[in-house]
Amino acid sequence: MEQEVSALKKLQVQLDAAETVFKTWDLDSMNLRKDQVTARLDSVSNFYTNRNLIMEMPVGLLMADFKNAGKAYKRIAGDYHRVKEELDFSKGQLIRMKEDMESGSMKQEQASQYLSEESLAVKSVYDQVFKMDTIFMRSEKIYAEFTPQVDSLIATFKNSH
């Protein structure tokens, strides 16, 4: 049963790493960013629409890149609760499995089978969290890079009245 206990500990470490990354995200902040991106995009779009102007290619490309950040925030915010549930469920499964192994109420064959199944679930949660984190970090970079340019464009529009 030593091998199973070792495998269980490794799975717990993976989940702890995923949970640590997950806890760095602030859902309210992501929703706020998404709303800020949308407001800025609407402001630029309205400027062109209200004046029957065609958006120049550089502005269109800037808006498309900026919009990608908004979509990513929206996607992460949408997946947040589902991934949290999966993370919490897997943690609970591992805790119960550890208790059963320590109490001797789980046989080695059963433990091996459950660990095999749970390792797939842990890998899935782990991969989802780190994929979401990569998307989040990329979005933060886009937001930081393009927000000053978009704000400058909006300021130019306001000054052109």
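^ that was protein a. below is b, sequence first then the tokens
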Amino acid sequence: MPSITPTPTPVPIADTPFYESITPLKQKDQFSLAPVENSYISGNGPLYLDLAHSNMGSGWAYPGDTVGVSVKMYNDGPALDTTAHMTMGLQKYIYTDYGSFWSSDLVSEEIDTPLTVGEKTSFTRNFSYSVPNTTGLKGFYRITVKYYINGQFNCGFVKELNILDP
């Protein structure tokens, strides 16, 4: 598999406070942003996401910035005291003369994280994603995060983001 450099790299920061550090949008970039559409991926539960009460962070970033996401989650079943398996993938939107498509994962992470949550309760999970401080990253990206409990897909989300030139 060819190596793609440089690409943004995920920083798994589960169970930490929300953190985002974004450079204010520069005037030259005001009219060059692609619209972002963050979305929920439904699964088989008992965990569910509530995007309406989540903070999906900024829709843009510059090299050196850190994008944050704070996701409101619900346990719709009995209390859980287990290890959740989380996958995180980064794709770039590719434009060609023949059409447009999402790339395969440029970066792929798998993380096992402890999960202790009461019956029929809500909780928050926070994620941060650091954009390398380098040029040549400009483009439209999406981060796909999926949660698995006992090998079963429960829920996930897609975070879209414009990465701009410094």
